[in-house]
Amino acid sequence: xxxxxxxxxxxxxxxxxxxxxxxxxxxxxxxxxxxxxxxxxxxxxxxxxxxxxxxxxxxxxxxxxxxxxxxxxxxxxxxxxxxxxxxxxxxxxxxxxxxxxxxxxxxxxxxxxxxxxxxxxxxxxxxxxxxxxxxxxxxxxxxxxxxxxxxxxxxxxxxxxxxxxxxxxxxxxxxxxxxxxxxxxxxxxxxxxxxxxxxxxxxxxxxxxxxxxxxxxxxxxxxxxxxxxxxxxxxxxxxxxxxxxxxxxxxxxxxxxxxxxxxxxxxxxxxxxxxxxxxxxxxxxxxxxxxxxxxxxxxxxxxxxxxxxxxxxxxxxxxxxxxxxxxxxxxxx
Amino acid sequence: xxxxxxxxxxxxxxxxxxxxxxxxxxxxxxxxxxxxxxxxxxxxxxxxxxxxxxxxxxxxxxxxxxxxxxxxxxxxxxxxxxxxxxxxxxxxxxxxxxxxxxxxxxxxxxxxxxxxxxxxxxxxxxxxxxxxxxxxxxxxxxxxxxxxxxxxxxxxxxxxxxxxxxxxxxxxxxxxxxxxxxxxxxxxxxxxxxxxxxxxxxxxxxxxxxxxxxxxxxxxxxxxxxxxxxxxxxxxxxxxxxxxxxxxxxxxxxxxxxxxxxxxxxxxxxxxxxxxxxxxxxxxxxxxxxxxxxxxxxxxxxxxxxxxxxxxxxxxxxxxxxxxxxxxxxxxxxxxxxxxxxxxxxxxxxxxxxxxxxxxxxxxxxxxxxxxxxxxxxxxxxxxx
Lengths: 333, 385
Fold this sequence. Notes:
The complex is a heterodimer. Chain A is mainly alpha-helical. Chain A contains ten helices and two strands. In chain A, strands 1-2 form a two-stranded antiparallel sheet. Chain A is flat. By secondary structure, chain B is an all-alpha fold. Chain B is flat and about 70 Å long.
């Protein structure tokens, strides 16, 4: 920050009074700081505006349907029968499937990049993860719909046949060519690809901050590399990795295009993850948008509000956890 | 990384007369052969089981089976060669590296898939130079193209960058230069916003700009929504870049009597220029593929609309999704959508490469040209005195 002179050298002499330097910013500086502060607060402003305007515009639907908006499992334009009772849990189910795949893959990739990969390979892999984050979700979605879906249906069929004692894997609709097409499981698989880079890059940063002295100590005690990772890196990075994983879940909750392109949309809850059907809130908004009248937009705004509320809670918790772990890293150095 | 990782030889005091060095962290032939052997053996076993014995189908299941068998095989092979502790170490190394390999495979798969599928449409020159104004669902690939969508994408990303980059860099400067009590909550909310559902940004702009302020559904509205999505990316990346500007430079500027805004303007920002450029380009790469908010706020069009402030505008992502969802039964239209996917992928790759070429330099690290200019100045200086 600005000028601050510490009068450390003046300690021995008694009659020397330490000079206190007060720096008062010029008017230009005050304006400058004000502008920067305003820019910093813009993120608060945007978050607040999202809340205010979605509540304002969604009010009509919320007032018309009351609490049943959150429990009713229908989305019928005729007669305005709106409810996200099916899609809210399905959003969470899809995000859960996505994170069940993304979190282990992303954390192993992060540990590989931070601990195993030698210098040049590490830089290459960091670039690959950045690129993975930059590839548009529509590209993943098209790939998932046209390439992955036909190749993964065999596994889905096998799972539903042999592990049907596990209720979510059971099939409740008639067997046909499209039984396994457009299921929450496939949507979750594609969404996981979009959660992987965000988790990997954040947790890699945390893992690579593990103090070198403690690593050396572990090696000096005769540890193998895995032993060192288990006893030094993982405990050190636990907070950051949890936060990163939660941000990945937040990303998966809000993913629109992949779900829109892959799932066969139904407003009713589908917790049999291997069979066709179900929908997420984000995909519902994108899919129903063009056909909605002014009144029906209100229902979509209310659905968006529910989605925003969930992701805001998950993401803020994640960000707080990440911040905590960062400050812990600062004291450890 | 640590010293032990650089492959330094460590002394081993064994009973022999001559002291020999034990090389740790070196990949021996044994390691390579164990992995390769397990991979080949499991591939063969998977082929026999999967294709011949069991009634499975689908390429995905094949590779899943192969991976599981590979891990088991490797465990068995490693158990034959090494002790338990070493086996555990090796197996974890294999598991971790498969995470990294998986990420690489996904990225190259995406690039390869969009290239292969996009080529049939992209080969025709009219794909790049015409719009879909006179192209119906059945028209052949030699007619119609994506020019209107490309123009829309470029205009919108330009506007979104113009909106989000100054604001984002100013917010990052607030975090690094001003700070104070608000620093922590701002950083928390910025981190939380990185995972903001992009469709919610579209909803906000629609509710605020279109419904309340009466702005038309247009490329400009879409650009505002994309700017909201880009903002946290810009702030986070710019903060990382600004944070590594050496504090001594800052203090030197203050010691010369410069005010804070002069210091930021003439010392900190120029020092971080290369990193900030990378940030901007990466954020553009992130923003150009945004689909959901554009879908809500910009509408769609088959014709050229070069005016981002009035009228509906198509972009590459909305062109792709329309061609796949609404015209899915027309092979030529789908091929065009996949071609647009390749165009989008090329744009992202180009932006990404530019970012890598510009970036990767530490703050204050000079390019060859800058160094030459600087040395020329230093030679001239004594003459001037």
